[in-house]
Amino acid sequence: MKPERNDARATMKPSPFAACLSALALLASCTFLPKGARDIRQAVWVTRYDYKTEDDVRAIIRNCARSGLDTVLFQVRGNGTVGYDSALEPWFEQFDFRSPGFDPLFVACDEARLQGVRLHAWINALPGWRGKAAPKSEWQLYHTRPDWFVVDQYHDRQALLLGDQPAYLWLNPCLPEVREHVARICAEVTRKYPVDGVHLDYVRLPDRNEVASQPAGNAARDFGYDNRTLELFREASGKSPAEDRSAWDAWRADQVTALVREVKRAVDRVRRHAVVSAAVYATPARAREVAQDWPAWLARGFVDAVFPMAYSDDDLRFGEMIAAQRAATDKPIIVGIGVYKHEDPQQTLRQIEAVRGLGFPGFALYSYAALHGSEENSKAAPVEASLRARRREGLLPTLQGVGLDRRQGRSAIR
Q: What predicted TM-score, i.e. pTM, was given to this entire model?
């Protein structure tokens, strides 16, 4: 049996960032920025692939601030690997599972404080691995906790590849130890860093498009059929999935909800006023298909806000999605807009105006890379660089105008 990761780390020297992190964490409670979810006006998602160096991170935060964005959703967990100094999971695979010599989340928090923007730690909750091969790190969950991954009704784990592309391999939210692990990650981030919030993603069951096709002539793949999960369901219902499919679906949705509740409690114990939010499917009906009952999460106070991903290059469809969101709840909804789908920045502006027209508190743009790119990427893909430049030219005057109003104490979003 391999030693626990935490035991191995206990013999390591304290992180060089520890003292700075502790001091910076003290500033979290005295920042001048409002903390409530309804104060998020203009947010943006920054993926783990957008940065490699400390200079990258600082440039990203500065670009966001200069663009008029007030909240940065900064990805620090992708697939059982992380972008901060953790005692629970190894570093990102793009860092070769080792410290890159700087702490991206520490740097992002520091620069966000300097630039006057809010920083939310974006955490992919249930992906456990993604790669064309098994992870090289022996401490990665794929090796240390194989029993935490979902199993289908054919008694198979997910394949590494979906076609010829790597697929996310999912952790099983029906297992209490999985929920506890994810909650511990969120608590660790909140305890060690002065983040303004924790932003969950992939907090659901796998979508039918995210898994391999079923064997010929058999039913579509479904998940949660390991012996432990089946036993837990039988204890709760007295039945098997085949005996009551509706009860099976409802019970699994309850387990996803339990995960969100545990994260909220864990974060609140560390920092009561940190915002807990989740990126979710665009409409309640679509979300229910993947056990993601986000209207209930809002109603029960398990999240402070949701970010429905209404990504579309069809304005009519976009309007239908946000109308369904508006009808679902009066709790804070920050609408996700898929800038990467829009070749014409005027379409993004139309969707922003539609969001404002329905009275939502704000919106979030997916993603940073659709507006800004590194010099290296610009040279490698000049057509995409030109498109990003057109988006900036078309969008930034509007975004910056709202940002100016915000700094002067007036919101241009009604």
A: 0.89
